[in-house]
Amino acid sequence: MPIFVALLRGINVGKAKRLPMEALRQLLAELGYAGVKTLLNSGNAVFHAAGTSGATHAESIGQAISETLALEVPVIVKSAHQFDAIVREYPFGPVDSDHSRHIVAFTQEKHSLSTLRSIEALVNPPELFVVGKRAALSALCERNPGEQGRRSTSWQARQGGHHAQLGHHPEVARAGHPQ
């Protein structure tokens, strides 16, 4: 069965929209998804499912969260193959060990990516930003001493979209390369 990744926006940030990962795993299992795993307290989950579209899974998960847990949560679901394609198309060179320097902004539908183009005008070097075929991608290529805790303008703008760090979940990282 194909592997999918569910990204739940705004979960467990501060005191709003609290969703224990055990409850999320149980809900996904009840929906018929297999091998459900979550990442820390992030609202991100990896699961195996029959080969329907990510959008169909996103709709089912969002509806179940609303009905079962009384939370309205935007959900994006991408297949592991889509994640692999995003990594292969990454335009800024190899992803180094500092994953916090590489950000991917997802939309459920490809056509929605065009709304992220307005961020390009806000980007300041050494940050890079591009809207790709499947996601918007950003990288901080170098860091000046003393700027370690500073967030860029485009990072702040991205807070309106769902983003994830490349390579953080080992099962997704391996999905395109079975062992």
What can you see in these coordinates?
- The chain has 179 residues and is α+β, with helices and mostly antiparallel strands.
- It is built from 5 helices and 8 strands.
- It has helices spanning 21-30, 54-69, 80-88, 153-158, 170-175, and strands at residues 3-8, 34-38, 44-48, 75-79, 102-106, 127-131, 136-140, 162-165.
- The strands form 2 sheets. Strands 2-3-1-4 form a 4-stranded antiparallel sheet. A 4-stranded antiparallel sheet has the order 6-7-5-8, with no helix packed on it.
- Strand 6 (127-131) and strand 7 (136-140) form a beta hairpin.
- It is globular.
- The two termini are 15 Å apart.
- Mean pLDDT is 79; it is low at 144-179.
SSE inventory with pairings:
Elements (H helix, E strand, L loop, with lengths): L2 E6 L12 H10 L3 E5 L5 E5 L5 H16 L5 E5 H9 L13 E5 L20 E5 L4 E5 L12 H6 L3 E4 L4 H6 L4
Antiparallel strand pairs: 1-3, 1-4, 2-3, 5-7, 5-8, 6-7
Largest sheet, spatial ordering of strands: 2-3-1-4
Mean pLDDT, rounded to whole units? 79
Relative helix content? 25-40%
Query: Tally of extended strands?
Result: 8
Give a quick precis of the structure.
The chain has 179 residues and is α+β, with helices and mostly antiparallel strands.
